[in-house]
Amino acid sequence: MEGKSNAVEDVPVWARRDAFPLKPPDADFGFVDPKGNLHTATSADELGAKVGQARDGVDLVWTPEGDRLVVPEQVPALHKPLRARLGKRAEQDRADGVRMGLVFGAIMVWTLYAAWKNSGGEISALYSHQLTGLAALLFLMFGLLPFYEGRKMRRHLAQTKVSEMAGEVPDAQFDIWLHRQKVPVTYFLLACLLLCGLVQVYFDWGSAEFRKSIIQAGLLKQEALKYPGQTDGAAWWRMFTAPMLHGNAIHFLMNAGGILYLGRRTETLARWPHLLIVFVGSMWTGGLASYYWIPDKIAVGASGGLMGLLGFMLIFELLHPRLVPKPARRRLLAGVVLMAVIGFLGMSFIDNAAHAGGLLAGMAYAAIVFPSSVSSRRPETMRRDRVVGIFAGAVVIAATILVMVKVLT
After folding, report:
1. 266 and 359: one domain?
2. What is the pTM of this model?
3. d(CA 332, CA 337)
4. Full strand arrangement of the beta sheet holding 60-62
5. Rounded Cα–Cα distance for residues 271 and 263 (Å)
6. In this predicted model, what pLDDT tens digit does every residue of 289-344 receive, in sequence order?
């Protein structure tokens, strides 16, 4: 059970009256920023002004009308300053997209021209060279995406009225509630990845890429033949150590950010055992897919496990539609599309086989383990889930220790 309120409120936990804390007793008006800082006000007008000018953003607000913190979309008096704030952010995103798009667009055009010229006019060089793929990714992430998000928000604000902002309450409640949940298992997983990353930094000190540590514990496959003394490039244990390693610091930070978001979502909605089970199963499946589909490239990184979590939550939320607002589910689907685009642009250095294998493994696990439900309650954690989850956690710990042993000895 999720609490006694289940018998009274047939709504998701994030939409219940007790989803957020009681308001502070010493001020009638105020708001809480994303860092947890309290900002008080003496009137509704002052609160609206502060919400519109808040530098760090606004998570929750309080007024004399209620006894608990609520999302600002629930307060009609704040709709105008909220829309003004969104308009400013949309314009900033659009401007940043234009500026950075010009910079990285020029870099992309230059790398494409250089690759074409240096290859003697070979068209294949336009998509097989790593620098062209990297430049295209930077153009997408720092140019096209911010510009698109800014334009989309501006269009949304132009097509909707201030009074329609109340319809955004469920999405706002879900996002803020999710952000405030404690997720120790997600942080445990990140801590293990960080520890392995620090081992790589120590072993490969002075190098921009973690080449030597990858040779020691990455999934080398047939590439092992190029390195004297490395005769176990496809050993079974490398299927578990390779996902704990990364090619460089940017690779690690991108995967860590994805795991922090998807891990939080998985641990909170589907419970912690399935976070570990899906991650371990998907990273192993992704490694197998990489081994058989791309036998001539080294595999490394937690992307298989990350894509497994993405695929798992996509199916899990489809089977439990009342647990998550529709806009949040759509953003998850957009994440799959974005990863497909990134995989296409970075095909010269991104392990798309591991991505696809992990994604399908996570989707299959959700479809097999979780039946479709119209309930607004989160699934209960059964004893067998905890047992298998503990075993999966032990696999992560063992893989972390094995990385240290193989790299440092």
Report:
1. yes
2. 0.92
3. 9
4. 38-41, 29-32, 60-62
5. 10
6. 999 999 888 999 999 999 999 999 999 999 999 999 999 999 999 999 999 999 98
